[in-house]
Design brief:
It is a single chain. The chain has 351 residues and is an alpha/beta fold. The chain folds into 2 domains: 154 residues, 3-Layer(aba) Sandwich (Rossmann fold); 185 residues, Dihydrodipicolinate Reductase, domain 2, CATH 3.30.360. It is built from 14 helices and 16 strands. It is globular, with a radius of gyration of 19 Å. The N and C termini lie far apart (50 Å). The structure holds NADP nicotinamide-adenine-dinucleotide phosphate (NAP).
Length: 351
């Protein structure tokens, strides 16, 4: 049985719809009993309510579940409790985080997960399924690669949950991987021109996304940078945030930003999602200077999140869930992304 926790959120709802479209009958769960009940009853599904910090209620909510698809973020506040209960109940854990600290926290629970015979697979959404598969594909093409760069161009807007997670991380430094270790760098540390295959070279800037953590576990490549294509005004704001860290981290600024986020729509509309696309690019470089480059194109970030998360949850439900901490490509291979409808991959010929 699949249990979707955080099913009432913007992304949780898309994931529930995708699960139903694939013929699943998930059990819905979350902390707000009234909201979950209303959602479940409208869909004719079973539901359970439990706060994330109520271990007894969470144990009861997970009873009988084979797989939890955890959608309640920011995950920095929820991953530990949910992984605790999954370890106790021997339930496979998948989430849709993109937060480095969460990946690293779950990676540190690898031995516990192996002992319990369960899979811990964070990042089953837009970040990191396509980029992780792209990284593993490049490492397969260039096994002696020493440097990896990944870049995103996600079109179509962000959900309230994504913006809340971003607000929580405002004022924090950037991150890259150097010689196998995650190191802090200034926000918007580097910018490079990238050809995403959409007819124009675009400036993309480093961001501390999940792949700085996960691509290392998937490929062993010791030096990793992750870039996102952003408008110049956003880049300038990111650079300014280097000096505004204490201000951005102050309670009053956070509260103002959270209030601004709350007043926005829950996320991109169906039309916006249908119109949008996500473009990814990756490059692996060996010490000799040899390079491998590839691109991925897929549906909008939220559509891709729903399809990828449910696809990986189905694999786990079918019993294909290698125990321990996993990344998407480590568990299911670099080509699992090509099983998601609408995703294509292109190898860029060396020049
Ligand atoms: N990696 C990716 O590619 C990717 C893609 C999509 C989303 N995400 C992440 O997924 C998360 C959810 O996004 P969203 O768009 O669905 O946000 P959302 O619309 O704000 O929904 C958040 C959901 O999580 C629940 N929740 C939040 N904090 C909780 C807590 N402490 N305990 C229990 N439940 C909690 C909320 O419950 P209430 O209604 O009771 O508040 C709600 O059901 C965000 O962190 C976002 O960054 C990541």
């Amino acid at each position: 049985m699949l249990l979707i926790y955080g099913s009432t959120g913007y992304t949780g709802r898309l994931i529930v719809a995708e699960a139903l479209a694939r013929g699943l009958r998930p059990v819905l769960a979350g902390r707000n009993a009234e909201a979950v009940q209303m959602q479940a009853q409208s869909l004719g599904l079973e539901w359970r309510a439990a706060r994330i910090d109520d271990a007894v209620a969470l144990d009861a909510a997970l009873a009988g579940a084979t797989v939890v698809l955890h959608c309640a973020g920011p995950f920095a506040h929820t991953w530990r409790e949910m992984s605790d209960v999954c370890l106790r109940q021997r339930t496979h854990y998948l989430d849709i985080t993109g937060e480095i600290t969460v990946f690293e926290g779950l990676a540190a629970r690898d031995a516990e997960a192996r002992a319990a015979g369960i899979m811990l697979l964070p990042g089953a959404g837009f970040d990191v399924v396509p980029s992780d598969c792209l990284a593993a594909h490049l490492a397969r093409r260039l096994p002696n690669a020493e440097r990896l760069a990944l870049a995103f161009r996600a079109l179509g807007g962000a959900s309230r949950g994504t913006l809340t997670t971003m607000v929580e991380n405002l004022g924090a430094p950037g991150a890259v991987r150097r010689a196998g270790r995650i190191v802090a760098v200034p926000q918007a540390w580097r910018t490079r021109r990238i050809d995403f295959g959409d007819g124009k070279l675009r400036d993309a800037t480093t961001i501390p996304w999940g792949d700085v953590s996960t691509a290392f576990y998937s490929t062993g490549i010791p030096n990793i940078e992750v870039y996102v294509s952003m408008r110049p005004v956003v880049r300038r704001a990111a650079i300014a945030s280097r000096w505004l860290g204490p201000v951005l981290r102050s309670g009053i600024v956070r509260r103002l930003l959270v209030a601004w986020v709350r007043n926005r729509s829950p996320g991109p509309s169906e039309t916006e999602r249908e119109r949008a696309a996500s473009l990814l690019w990756g490059e692996a470089v060996a010490a000799s200077g040899q390079r491998a480059e590839a691109r991925l194109r897929g549906p909008s970030g939220y559509t891709l999140t729903a399809r990828a998360a449910v696809h990986l949850a189905v694999r786990a439900l079918e019993g294909d869930a290698p125990p321990g901490f996993q990344t998407p490509s480590r568990a299911y291979g670099p080509d699992v992304i090509l099983e998601i409808p609408g995703v294509t991959r292109t190898d860029v010929p060396s020049t």
